[in-house]
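Hi W.,

Here's what went into the run:
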Amino acid sequence: MEIDWGLFGELFARTFSFWWVILPAILLGLIVGAIPGFSAANTIIILLPMTLAMEPEIGLIFMVALYASSRMGAGIPAILVNIPGTAGAAATPLDGYPMTKQGRAQQALAISFVASVFGGLLTTLIALVAMPWLSQVAYHLHSVEMIVIMLFGISLIATIAAKDTLKGLIAGFFGLMIGYIGADVVYETPRGTFGFLELYDKVPLIPALVGLFAVSEAFAVIEGESILTKRGMAAMQKAGWKETWEGVTMAMSRWWHIIWTSIIGLVIGIVPGAGAAIASFVAYQQSKTFSKTPELYGTGHLDGLVAPESANNGVTSGTLIPLLVIGVPGGATAAIMAVVLQYHGVTVGPDLFENQPELAFGAFTAMAVTYAIMILTVLPLARYMSKITVVSTTYMAPIIISFTLVGAFVPRAYVFDMYLALAFGVIGYVARKTGYHVAAILIGVILGPLLENYFLRALRISEGDVLVIFSSGIGNILWILLIISLFVPMYLDKRRQRQREQALPTTTDC
Amino acid sequence: MTDYENDVSRRLFLKGAGATAGAGALSMLPIQMAFAAAFPEQNIQVFVPTRAGGGADRNLRAFTGVWKKYVKQNFEAGFYPGAAGRVGYETYMGKAKADCYNLIFGNMGPEVLNWVVKKPTFPLDSYFYFAQVDADPACVFVSSKSKFKHIDDIIAEGKKRTLTVGTSRLAHPASLGALVLAQKTGARFNLIPLSGGRNTRGGVTTGEVDFGVLPASSVLRKKIKVLALFDDKNPLPKRMPDAVLTNDHFKLGLPPLIAGARAFGIKKEAVEKYPERFKVLTDTLQKVYTDPAYKKAVVKTKAPWEFIKYGNAEDCAKYVKYVTDLGQDYRSLLTGKKKT
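Here's what came out:
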């Protein structure tokens, strides 16, 4: 696979000429991404008859634009009303929603858009030129290494627990226990399903996600008049274009943060089966680890919003790499795209670079052009989207509940999932009222089953040898990094505290 | 439910809808009354126990796209994924009316192995398969970069050390193929369920496992080499030139081990109550196989036409019994429970 800069230039120019396909795909992607339960994957399936009527190249551009924009769309309700549209946006409300409550919804949206676009654009360009080398990542990250990567994400529970250790750990372990409901991956023995067939394939993520975050939020906000604080309401009423621009400059000043967290997303996206949820939690955890102000995370910290949004958009281009280079899709949407292209008679895989390079490289140029068009399209909307936060909770709460219940139903079309969302809503509400962290529960629910999958697979491969988790060179390096990322912040915290204590008498002396 | 009306007729419908709506409303009434006894009078529902967008969906679209021409009604697919097909079957058996307007479209092998591992809530003889659509043999495959160039290399290595074998899930005909091969040759294989064909291909291609077993049609890719087929003949010798036939090569003496055998199933009660309706279904579906439009539709999806194979209710029953019996032989390995 040689880099042909001339071809890239031609492809970019050609892709821009399809703006009329990209623009509606972006709008559709933002809408389906923002509605919990809908996703690029199921929208592509629903629109199959339409994409089949298109030329393969146009169909591919449409799907890629839809995919990239839906990723960004999922962050919008996460920030505005604490409803992540997908599991990939589950880490976004941790700092996005507190910003909204403070009346900084417009800035939060602008930060999210800029981080998503530049994270996505950067990783797409990296993917385009470094595809052959990047694809090697998939050859080196197997079950053992993925166990450690999962632990990076799960260790967020410990970080959250730092404020109230017992409650944080209880919430985390409760989430992990819920995550283990369902059939085990080896013998498919059902565990804790209470006889419900609908739970055989684990607790479905979307009902858990919308229940814990959105339904419980709706129960909570109905107790007040607005989701905003008084000061937040005053700020929102005065807000104009200035706030959007402020958000843009805030995000741009964190350009380095966008770069490295989006690269985390790119690398995790390349691993088949890993996904945006893992990437966003790992990026958030790493961002907090290396932050000078880790105590501000969870209170509306800008870095805490930039990290997951850059990372989950980095995943988007990452999932296409294994699909195109080794013929194995990195995620569900990439797999569906491959199926649709197959209907067109296009076999997606390494052959595509030889037979139809304009399609193979075109997937990435389409993604890059989508991001470029997207920032111009979506940024002016931040001002208007943020207005939803001033709506009275009398209307907001029932709307949230209705939307989320529909969202819970959509992925599998089981009424059971709507009840499940309500049950998780009650759990989330009780957790909020009693000071247990909902995010800690959710991390367990999302990452627990993945950790179990990789762990059981590694154990099976090693024929039951637990020490297999230390059997890989790369895995061992990751273990060391994990230990460093867990203990260095604790050491730094202690040091800072000591310095503050030493500084205090001096100040008093003065 | 997904409507399988094709896009051309959808467009025609939209174009003509306005003009014909009034006239249609008036004229349809006597026509409907005149053919009240004809079957089918309404769309036929097909329960699919897998996700939309996968191989079953693709296969079903191609088949029903032509079948509807003969039954003169559309097919509506409802997807009920979960628990390796169990949710779909339980939903079909629990909710679908026994009236021949409700069918199930499943993959016989893996799905009947479910019942070997854990019995369903409905009696096993309350439904049966009546039309097999394809026959996709189980195969042994490696990455094109693998040191194994021939199935004998795998067996020789498997006699020295335990080899890891990626498979979609344990209760799958392809997994049974690997177990039979190990037993007959003395090689040691450790089956690693990788949750689906996509992950299994990934596990083999990226070197996490030594080799894999899957239905052959799912591994016809450039970076993958098929080394053995559990079939009596190689349906695609040009695309699988390195594949040996396990029966010939190792003298297994087994019937072909078909890993992908999609088929239409129906409730037994429906056939008993409405035999004439069932006859309409079976008579019309047989015409699909000889219709050039079907071949065209299959080829368009890039699925190999060579794997398309008709099998009647008797063929299906024979296959189900074979896989079930084989599954019972290896039940302890599939469930992790000791033989009782």
